[in-house]
Amino acid sequence: MQLSYQEIWRGLENLAAAKGMSLSGMAAKAGLDPTSFNKSKRIGADGRKRWPSTESMNKVFHAMNVTVFEFMELAGVPCPQTKRTIPLLGLVKAGREGYFDTDGNPILSDDWDGIEFPISEAKNVYALEVSGNSMLPVYREGDKLVVSPEAEVRKNDRVVVKLRSGEVMVKELAHKSAKQIELKSLNASYDPIIVAPDDVCWMARVLWVSQ
After folding, report:
1. What CATH architecture is 84-210?
2. 189: Cβ–Cβ under 8 A, 6 or more apart, which residues?
3. Phi and psi (nearest 5°) for 8?
4. Which H or E element spans position 74?
5. Structure confidence by residue, pLDDT tens digits, 4-20
6. What percent of the chain has pLDDT over 70?
7. Residue 198: what pLDDT?
8. Confidence at residue 79, expressed as pLDDT on a 0 to 100 scale
9. Is the link from the previous residue into 137 a cis peptide, with omega within 30 of 0?
10. Which of these CATH numbers, 1.10.260.40, 3.15.10.40, 3.50.50.60, 1.10.3720.10, describes 5-74?
11. Percent of the chain with pLDDT over 90
């Protein structure tokens, strides 16, 4: 269920057109800079492709009152017709032993619940339920983060990280090199965290948020 660079931008263009708005008007309604989705913003100064952030996409979905799957249709990506139950675990429990293997794949037990989700790819996709307000305004209590340990992790992706200390956290990958990994907090009240690669047991990408 991963969307390509072209599909993401096509979906935004088609969504704005479906709502009778310009891209700048849609961005403004979502509380974003009106130029956020301009074509000039889609390639960085270094020539690399720039992707809209998960936070920006979530704001657009809320402002336009569309679901992820309606957006996929607008992007030209057929949605799976059947729903599948994926494992669900409270984020607080995720740091305890016995719930994940060394690669970040879920080890299922009676402690895992489940939610229905229309997804056909990535066998080991699972969901973590947020508790508390430490990730506001990006994620709220009760949000279910759909996570894939198989998906490629890129800079600025939202990720679930387990450290060798046992702590599990949800952060934004700000920088990764052979010497250090910088993880940006979703709540501006918390400072970024810098860790050595050897201190990380596994890192998995957050694909979507299900409320």
Report:
1. Ribbon (2.10)
2. none
3. -60, -50
4. helix 68-74
5. 899 999 999 999 998 88
6. 94
7. 96
8. 65
9. yes
10. 1.10.260.40
11. 58
Region label for 134, one of left (φ > 0), alpha (ψ between -120 and 50) or beta (otherwise):
alpha
Condensed to tens digits (0 to 9), the pLDDT of residues 150-189 reads: 888 988 888 999 999 999 999 999 999 999 999 999 998 9
Rounded to whole angstroms, how far apart are CA atoms 16 and 88? 33
Q: Is the sign of the CA dihedral 9, 115, 113, 91 positive or negative?
A: positive
Measured CA angle at 14 (ends 84, 159), to 5 deg? 50
Residue 116 tokens read as 């229905």
E strand residue ranges, the chain? 84-90, 113-117, 126-129, 144-148, 158-163, 168-176, 181-184, 193-195, 200-210
Could you tell me which of 206, 103, 202, 71 has the C-alpha nearest to residue 151? Answer: 206
State the pairing for strand pair 168-176/84-90.
unpaired
Residues in the chain: 211
pLDDT score of 123: 67
* d(C-alpha 57, C-alpha 30), whole Å: 9
82: its two tokens: 């059947």
pLDDT below 50 — which residues of the chain? none
For 27-60, letters b (16+ CB in 10 Å) and e give bbbbebeeebbeeeeeeeeeeeeebbbbbbbbbb
In this structure, what token pair is assigned to residue 90? 């409270």
